[in-house]
Amino acid sequence: MSESFLLQLTLLIPLLALAGIQLTARRENVREAVSLIAASALFAVVTQLYQPMLDGHTIAVHWLDILPGLALAFRVEPLGLLFALVASFLWIITTVYAIGYMRGHGEKNQTRFFSLFAVSIGAVMGIAFAENLFTLFIFYEVLTLCTYPLVTHAGTDKARQGGRTYLGILLGTSVGFFLLAIIATWLLAGTLSFQPGGVFLPDTSAALLSVLLVFFVFGVGKAAIMPFHRWLPAAMVAPTPVSALLHAVAVVKAGVFVLLKVCLLIFGFETLRSIPATNWLLYLAAASILLASIIALRQQNLKKRLAYSTVSQLGYITLGALLATSAGMTGSALHIVMHAFGKITLFFCAGAILVAAHKTEINEMRGLGRQMPVTMTAFLVASLCIIGIPPTGGTWSKWYLMLGTFEAEQWVLMGLLMVSSLLSIAYLLPIPLRAFFTNNNPGAVTAEGAVAIKEAPLPSLIALSITAAGCIYLLLFPDAFYQLIKAGI
């Protein structure tokens, strides 16, 4: 089986999954088996691209010429493969979780959910392996449109309002800024293909490049840089598996992944360091980190606190990319992986708490650790991963981000990252600690005085245990991802 065929399979498997899910809609066990088989097949195909990529093989597919120099084309490169590996693996785990959650919570329109999830993963593969900005933009927009019905899944007025905010901001930024930046890049550089070191000539106006960089950063609304972040908290009206998709598997990761590719393969480090806009965009990313952390600290609804935590953590990735140093880019790319495992675990736990204990507010979760020990232990592990301390993989990404600020001699930003880490301790750790070390939850004790264990459905419990274990595994064995990142920088 040729490597180019494997690349095309990564795009076709989600579409075949969509067809299979629709054909088996009336038989839910078969429908969900189709989702799991497709997700497993996709991950297997993506992993087969890993070694050829490291061996220096060129793996590319050219589908269609739209105009001279404007093509629908795909190519495997290290950062794209990193993103595809994470997304395809987490598709498997999220499907397992969703089976337990959707049944346990009695959600309607489950076939639509699994169908659109498959389309979303297909869009992610298109973004990950896009050879140029034109191809990337098409799949970027497909991802926005196919996730909108997932955000409005509940069909309530609140869900529709959240969906309007979601769609309005993401389409508005992509058409108003991102598309214009792509057109300007084509006119200035004569190409939209991603190239090591960037595509712009050395004599290109620094002022013009500054404007272009601002348009890219604001145009990639999925990266949730302030002030274009409101869609993310608004989308929390969606079911928890959708929140996991938005925060860990697809949407926000697509946003920061695009920014990494733009910084590395459209501008290049030398160009980024030479233009005036880079410095103030760094401080804008820093402001997003700090302000979102403060807002998260004030939220009593668990999913909203996690949503603002995501805005803050995405700021870390954006900041690392804009530092234009090897360590900063390494930290950003690693944080895509570490945040994916940590945040998906936190949302899995939030959904498990809703299904098993019917609680959504943080002040209701005192003593819950005695009733849901597996869930709250996973929450604790994932919190440590987001904070960036052992025994979790988040330690590595935060270390390289700090090293990036050192390399760039950005001492203020280094201090701000430290403050933000302290804030993340303040808004995450009290939740599991109070769950285990307080006893204000009378429902946790039976009439005989024993603790009443009531966890989420088994598939959901298995999924959150796997991702929590992944947080620890990534501390011990980060090398597979690190090798990819070093090959791409």
Largest sheet, spatial ordering of strands: 1-2
- Rg computed from alpha carbons, rounded to a whole number of angstroms: 22 Å
- The proportion of residues forming helix, as a percent range, comes to over 70%
Instruction: Tell me the distance between the termini.
Output: 29 Å
Q: Tell me the major beta sheet.
A: 2 strands, antiparallel
Q: Output the number of helix runs.
A: 22
Count all strands and give the number.
2
Give the structural class.
Answer: mainly alpha
Mean pLDDT: 90
The portion of residues forming beta strands comes to under 5%
Low-confidence stretches: none
Q: What order do the SSEs take from the amino end to the carboxyl end, as H and E?
A: HHHEEHHHHHHHHHHHHHHHHHHH
The best one-word shape is globular
What do these coordinates show?
The chain is globular, with a radius of gyration of 22 Å. The mean pLDDT is 90. It contains 22 helices and 2 strands. It has helices spanning 3-23, 28-48, 50-54, 78-104, 110-128, 133-151, 157-189, 206-219, 231-234, 240-249, 251-267, 269-274, 277-298, 302-322, 326-357, 368-371, 373-387, 394-407, 411-428, 430-437, 458-476, 479-488, and strands at 60-67, 70-75. The longest helix has 33 residues, at 157-189. Helix 14 runs antiparallel to helix 19. Helices cover 73% and strands 3% of the residues. With 489 residues, the protein is an all-alpha fold. A two-stranded antiparallel ribbon has the order 1-2.
Please give the structural blueprint:
Blueprint: H1 3-23, H2 28-48, H3 50-54, E1 60-67, E2 70-75, H4 78-104, H5 110-128, H6 133-151, H7 157-189, H8 206-219, H9 231-234, H10 240-249, H11 251-267, H12 269-274, H13 277-298, H14 302-322, H15 326-357, H16 368-371, H17 373-387, H18 394-407, H19 411-428, H20 430-437, H21 458-476, H22 479-488
Helix pairs in contact: 1-2, 1-5, 2-4, 4-5, 4-10, 4-15, 4-21, 4-22, 5-6, 6-7, 7-8, 10-15, 11-14, 11-15, 13-14, 13-19, 14-15, 14-19, 15-17, 15-18, 15-21, 15-22, 17-19, 17-20, 17-21
